[in-house]
Amino acid sequence: MLPNYMHQALELMATLFIVAVGFFCLFLIFMYIRDRRQTSDAVLRNYPIVGHMRYILSDLGEFFRQYFFAMDREEMPFNRAQRGWIGRAAKNKDNTVAFGSTKYLKEPGTAIFVNCPYPTLEKDAEKTSSLVIGPYCKNPFEAKSIFNISGMSYGALSAPAVRALSKGAKMAGCWMNTGEGALSPHHLEGGCDIVFQVGTAKYGVRTTEGAFSDEKLRDVASHSQVRMFEIKMSQGAKPGKGGILPGAKVTPEIAKIRGIEQGQDSISPNRHPHINNNDDLLDFVAHIREVTGKPVGFKCVIGAYGWLEDLTNKVKERGIESAPDFITIDSADGGTGAAPMSLIDNVGLPIKESLPLVKDIIKKAGLGERIKIIASGKLITPSEVAWAMCAGADFVVSARGFMFSLGCIQALKCNKNTCPTGITTHNERLQKGLNPEDKAVKVANYCLNMVHEVETIAHSCGVPEPRRLKRFHVRMVQENGKSIPMDELYPTVIARDTTEQVIVKN
How are strands ordered across the β-sheet holding 474-477? Predict the structure, then answer.
C-alpha cells in the first residue's frame, strides 16, 4: 500500500497533466480559429494547425539534409568532403582517404593537375618563398604565407572567434584581415600581422559625421602589427551593395570601435562616395600610403573589366610607384553574413574566370611584378588554392575555410545572431562553446596543413615550391568531358616593352 504522500503526489501530477492537456487543447482551438480567419496564407487557411508542419519541416530540412540525404559532393555552398578535409586538417589528423575518389572528374571546370614523371624529391623541395608587397612604401611588408585569413569583421564575428583567429594566425605565420568593421583589441590580442580594411563606411577611421579621418588612420597605422591597408570597393557576395550589421549585433564595444550608434542597424554605402573614377582611386591609394607609410591596395569583385585596363594606363602615366601595391579579387560566389539572394546568385564573375583575366591585364601593362594579386572566394581546399597559384595569384585568402576550422557547421544562421557554434553571434551563452585557446590551434593547423598539401601538389607537378606553378601545370575539364591545358584556355600576355606585347605559354 502506497504512503499517503505518494498518493498526494500522484494526484497532483494527474491534475497538472489534465490542466496541461486542457491548455494544449485550448491552444489548438485558438490556432484553428486564427488559421481559419487569416487571409495571408492559403495553406494554413485550408489546412489549419497541420499546415504549420510544412514550415517546420522546411526549416529543419536544411539541417537534416547534410546528415541524411546529401552525398559527399552534393551540398552547397560547401559539401561534406570539403568540410571533412578542413575538419581533419584543423585537428591535425590523418587526411588520407581510401579506395578511390568520390569526385566526379568530368564535371566542367574541374582542375586536373599535370603530374610530372619525375616529381620533386624531398631533398630538392623548397619552402614556399615569401614576397615583398609595397616596395615603394616606407614600410614594405614581407608576406611569408601564401594562405591567409580573409576579411571578417568584429561584429559579424564574435569576440572569441576573432581572438581565436588572431592567435591562430600568429602560430601559423599568416596575416589576418580585419574586414570593414575596424580594428578591435581582439584582432591585436594574438600578435599576428594584420591587414586593415577601409570599408565604404570607413569604420574605425571616420569622424562622428562619417567623414574620413587622417588622424584616426595614423592611430591605426601606429600599431606595428598593422602591415597593409585594403580599400574595399566591392565584395563578391554583394557587389554594388554595402555591408549589413543588424542592430542586435551592435554592442556598446562594437559601436565604440566602429564609431556608430549602439543597437542600430549599421548599413555601409554601396561604394566610396568620393571615389568616382580611376584617378580618384589612385589618389586615395596614394593618400593612405603617404599617411601610413604602408602598402595599400583594393578589393573588388570583377564584372566589367575595361576600367582595369584604364587603371593600368593611368599608372604608367603617373609612374610605377603610383600603382596599388596589391589587388584582392573576390569571387562572385564569395561569402557574407547577409545579402540579397539576387546579388549572391547572379552578379559578378566567379574567381575561375576573373583571376586569369585580371592577371593578364596587369601583365600586359608590364605591372605583373609591381602589383601583387590576392585571390579570394570559395578557395578552401588544397586543389583550389593550387589552381589559384597556377592561374596567377600571389596569395590566397579565405574566410569561410577558417570559419570551418573554428567549428562552423554551415547552419546558415550568420545573420540571425543565433549561430550554434558561437562564431557569428553575440549571445554570450552561445559564445561559451567557443574556446579561443583551443580553436586557435585548429586555425593554425588548418593553415599549415593547407600550405603543406599545396606544396605536395607542386612537387607532384615537378616544381620545388608552389610559386613555381604555372598555367601549363593544370588542365581544365570542358563541356565535352575532356580537359585542355589552362595556358591554352587562357594564353598569357606579357609586355616586351611599353608598346609591344607577345602571347606566350605560361
Answer: 111-113, 474-477, 483-485
